[in-house]
Amino acid sequence: MIVFDKLRKLYGDFCALDGIDCTIPKGATVGLIGPNGAGKTTSMRLLTTLITPTSGDVWVDGISVNAQPHLVRRLIGYMPDTFGVYEAMTAAEYLDFYARCYDIPVATRPALINDLLGLVDLASKRDSLVMSLSRGMAQRLSLARALLHDPQVLVLDEPASGLDPRARIELRALLHELHDQGKTILISSHILSDLADLCTHLIILEQGKLVAYDTITALLSAQQSRRIVIQTLMPTPALYALVTHFNYTISVDPQLPTRYIVQMNGDDAAQAELLKACIEHNIPVQQFASEANTLERTFLQVTAGLN
Amino acid sequence: MRRDINPILIRELRGRMRTPRAFWLLVGFLTAVAGTALLVYAASYLSSDGQSSDIGNTVFFTLIVTAMAILTIMAPVIAAGSIAGERERQTFDLLLTSQLSAGTIIFGKILATLAYCGLLLSAMTPLIAMTFLMGGVDLGELFIMYAIICASVLLFTSCGIYWSTRANTPLTAIGFALATVLGFVFGLPLLAVTIPIIWAQFLDDTAVLDAVANIGLAAHPFIAMYLTDTAIRQQQIWTHVVNIKGFTITLPATWIICIIESWIISIAFIVAAMRRIWPMRTRS
Q: pTM of the full predicted structure?
């Protein structure tokens, strides 16, 4: 659906994107993560035809952003990280204005606007001034605007920034619904827990380079390092010696005399082997648990040492 | 399928007319124009021999020049805030990612500014009508003066729009637009005064310079108004004649040259503005 083809963008001497190459399948929800200045917004602005690449290209459904930007714009709904407002305009008028900008026929416009306001749960705010809407409502209205021309691809730049927990949950539910409708969604966010819940794929950028791109499941399981919590019934000095000398151990953090956090390489078999060793050494294990790999940890591990 | 009116035009007019600012600007404009005309009327009445047609013509000219003076400031200020305002409100990217062409955006902004200036001029109609009661003004003169105003407002609006595409904030755009327009309004007469003096140091024959100056100065709305008013009194509405080294050359009237020159410069500003806002936007 979306192909980043050796995409490179320079701002003077500064390289914002350095040869990004990846293919996003149709219907995927892709999280774009990376620290500030990693190239997330630049990637989105290139995809939405707001800027031109220095070299390379982006293809959306087989259409080149460089060659036919006006056709690409038909396929893309863009929601920037800021919600720009016009004075003295109601929510319905706001959508009507953008519907005109997308050449949506006048006959279908009123019904479409009502449907979209219903979809984003703003039907009751139809005649409210846009300026009077809360941040969460404004974000949902912005999403409705991005959906006006029924785009195949949604590009959402930090959609949850500044939202309260309830608004975030509502927005997440809405994005799940759009994913179920078959939209391809590219979403950048610093809230990694939200992305873990929403996304099927993940792109990790760092200093303009593509550090990792895969499905969330593959990225999480690919991380060899895992944290094991071992709790014993009583202080057991032998456990420290055991885990320290265990083949796969990276580090040991004795939090309490009865509690150790073991950072280790290896897969599930290695973890089972450690448990077996503890039992064989008569260590009174009360708890032996592997902490699930989170997106935060995956991100930190993937980008470790790049700065 | 019915073609929609330019969405930018609709949004601009809707947004502008819903704010109290539009009302107060209209009140301010009419107060300034009517107040100036009243003062000139009083002065003319006291100093003249009571010839109504002379007073009517003077008041008419005052109304037109005052309106032009206000629009000379107002048109570039309104236009300069338009695109830069979209940038400041962070709504510009949304326009660029829509199906609107650069031309639609620019023309929408220009038409919205012209429409508001048109509203101000229309609101002045009762004042103009009163000068007809006094006499000394005919309908042709009114149309010609309005044509000069419209062409000049288009020129100043285009200049404002151009600077609006270059600046990131409305304040910067307004500053540059006003500097350009006021530089033109005050700079051109200054050149008209200084160049002949320098010219006379080297050449005796100033006929060519006079002809060129006549054409060049015609773009200046106030000079064009003054020359047109004089020409109308001499019954030279459509043409004027210049003599260069014994040759008689008939040129279009100053107001026609003013309109043509204003159009040409406006088109240049508009094309430059369209190129500025969107290097990526192509329609293949």
A: 0.83
